[in-house]
Design a protein that fits this description.
By secondary structure, this protein is mainly α. Helix content is 64%, strand content 1%.
Length: 458
Amino acid sequence: MRSTGKRVLKVRERRRAVSISRVIAVTFLVLILIGTAILSLPIASRTGKRQDFLTALFTATSATCVTGLVMGDTWALWSNLGQGVILILIEIGGLGFMSAASLAFFTFRKKMSIQGQMVMAEAIGVENMGDILVLQKRLLIRAFIVEGAGALILTIRFLFQFPFLHAVSLGVFHSVSAFCNAGFDILGFLSPGASLIPYQTDPVVILTLSALVILGGLGFLVWDEVLRVHSFRKWSVYTKLVLITTGALLLGGTISFCVLEWNNPDTLGPMSWPGKILAGFFQSVTLRTAGFAGVDQGALTPASKAISIFNMLIGGSSGSTAGGLKTVTFVVLFVFIWNRMRGRYTVHVFHRTISNDQVLNAIVLFIVMVTLVFFGGTLISALSPVEFTDALYETASAIGTVGLTTGITPTLRVPAKLMIIVFMYFGRVGILTISFGFLKGKTAGQKFKYANTDLLIG
């Protein structure tokens, strides 16, 4: 009877994981389709003429999945209504539909179901559902405060150049886009497709956007713990790893980019040395799934493109607005490989042991992402007249929900564009559902086991 009861519980847990994964996937898909329908209306287009379905679908997917890849300049393509729709999709996709759902429950004072609480818990990386609504309310308020502060600073800066209402719209749009790590901009009226290049040496704009991107990419739980616990020693291992890894990646990316691009006449070359450092820092920040372009990505040296692809794949942290493999996953892989090279079979960080299951989960996610990026880049370069390096850059940007491009997105043929849409969706939804449905699902019991064998490895 006990064994039968355990099997029933395992089946229920697997079904529950699959059900929640479906809720996440379907909800994002519905949001994308709603956004596509609205963006397909003539009133959403700047010209007043209906945009084609593929352009609307591509834009809605990119906004909902907070990626930032676009078929054309956002300001040139979309009216104020279209830009407003994109902003709403970014906010929902960034904070998560779980956050929007919890906000509705707070507003109407309704009790959330157990399944709804589980979906929200997984979205922000919480295991204990006991105080999920209280925690989520606190995190939502803090998120809006940060976005509001960023919007205020940017608005004040833009007031020196533009009328009040225009400055406010620019401040709000770019603050939300930065915090949600979306990378959309509406600065095309200055220079179509240039993104943040007109402000590449402006410390107020660049540092404000950088702060928003970093805060959004750290993750809600890291925020909460840092604000509650004011001692590094008392922080959890996860929070320590997130902060140390984020700092190391930002510093390493800044140094690498400055060294490789310092004399490149098409990127950092013409700038003063403070401007070069600022632009190098912003490139390192934006690679963490933000997607704002501070320099021409197509003009980067091959080495810089390779480092950029590496950073785009790592992304931000779990439970954040960022995508990618995630910082702690990368650390687990790195420490595991380092220990195996030294003949050790366990992974230790901060006097704690990481379980073999978590190590295997990290390996699976890494293999899945690298495989998809490589074959995606290969197929895109075969389907469209673009170089393999640029195609690889595009696929890494899509699956990492970054949004940076070397400029090839509008030139891709229809099959390649459809593949990018799938990659953006998978990068935002697929990684989350794999983590919850596959990696956290209970494995089925095996009725038998084969004898061990020895192989030559390496």
